């Protein structure tokens, strides 16, 4: 399995967005967001910091296994996956 580093294509101030990254990272993150939200719906919508970290790691591992893409974990990508969307 090849290790892939996220390539940020757009630099700007403001909130993180999946579209700021390369296509591989976008697909990985979008899939991880979906899996993360499934876990939130099943376990509870307001996890504490420890629960959030566990859910993120579970989602990350599942997407890694599903896609075969070994994307390097970064705090920015974790924040992007766990961010609450603006309503």
Return the structural class.
mainly alpha
Share of helical residues:
55-70%
SSE order, one letter for each helix or strand: EHHEH
* Tally of discrete structural domains: 1
Side-by-side strand order of the widest sheet: 1-2
This entry's quaternary arrangement is single chain
Describe the protein in words.
This protein is mostly helical. The protein has one domain (20-81). The chain contains 3 helices and 2 strands. It has helices at residues 23-43, 49-67, 75-82, and strands at 3-4, 70-71. The chain has a two-stranded parallel ribbon. α1 packs across α2 and α1 (23-43) packs across α3 (75-82). The longest helix is centred in the middle third of the chain and has 21 residues, at 23-43. The model has no long low-confidence stretch (mean pLDDT 85).
Features:
87 residues, mainly alpha, two-stranded parallel ribbon, 55% helix, 5% strand, globular
Ordered list of secondary-structure elements with their pairings:
Layout: E1 3-4, H1 23-43, H2 49-67, E2 70-71, H3 75-82
Parallel strand pairs: 1-2
Helix pairs in contact: 1-2, 1-3
Short structural description:
By secondary structure, the chain is mainly alpha-helical.
């Amino acid at each position: 399995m090849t290790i892939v580093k996220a390539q940020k294509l757009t630099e700007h101030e403001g909130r993180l967005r999946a579209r700021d990254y390369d296509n591989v990272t976008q697909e990985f993150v979008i899939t991880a967001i979906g899996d993360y939200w499934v876990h939130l719906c099943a376990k509870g919508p307001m996890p504490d910091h420890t629960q959030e970290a566990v859910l993120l790691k579970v989602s990350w591992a599942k997407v890694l296994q599903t896609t075969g893409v070994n994307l390097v974990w970064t705090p920015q990508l974790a924040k992007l996956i766990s961010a609450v969307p603006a309503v």
